[in-house]
Amino acid sequence: MPLRFKVVIPARYASSRFPGKPLADICGKTMLQHVYECAQKSAAEQVVIATDDSRIESVAKQFGADVCMTSADHPTGTDRLAEVCLKYNWHSDDIVVNLQGDEPLTPVELLNQVAKNLSAHEKAGMATLSTQIKSIEEINDPNIVKVVSDAQGYALYFSRAAIPFNRDSDVDYSNELLKNYHRHLGIYAYRVAFLNAYADMEPCALESLEKLEQLRALHNGIAIHVQQACCLPGPGIDTPEDLVTAAKLICK
Question: What average pLDDT score do residues 192-198 get?
Answer without folding.
Answer: 95
